[in-house]
Design goal:
This protein is mainly alpha-helical. It is built from 2 helices and no strands. The longest helix has 27 residues.
Length: about 50
Amino acid sequence: MITLTPMMRGLTGEFPHVPPLLYAAFATTAAALTLAAVTLPARTALRTRHG
């Protein structure tokens, strides 16, 4: 939204229209990917080795 808004305002003079459900889906996906990118390497780094 940060880069899309100025571009749309410059080209059309209007704010971009993104349906709330689609915006929520993008935000949820980004949050899930961020969580996975942090959690999975941390679990691997903190795993204790037996044997």
